[in-house]
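Let us work through a complete example step by step.
Step 1: write down the sequence.
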Amino acid sequence: MTANSSHPLDPVKPGHIKIVRLAKEGRLARGDLVETATLGTCEVTGISSVDSLTVKAYDGSRHELTGIGWASRARLVETSRNDAGESEEADDASVAPAPRG
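Step 2: predict the structure and record it as tokens.
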């Protein structure tokens, strides 16, 4: 499965994930929206690794999306505080671009 950043109105190709909405630019985290050809638009509910997301579809069903292929271009970032400085769950994580260099 690969990430797709095509035009917002283009349909999602099978095996791709389209980023629909990010709360923080450049970082995928819980609560953000992604879209797949099979599930449609889903909310990210967990990030297990750079290549594994848990999502909740609009019908309430939960799905594990694996083999995304971001490992070479992204890194897993552990977070313990949100932007307002409030504590969050210890297992909270987001996927951010890997540093270049």
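Step 3: interpret the result. The two ends are 26 Å apart (CA to CA).
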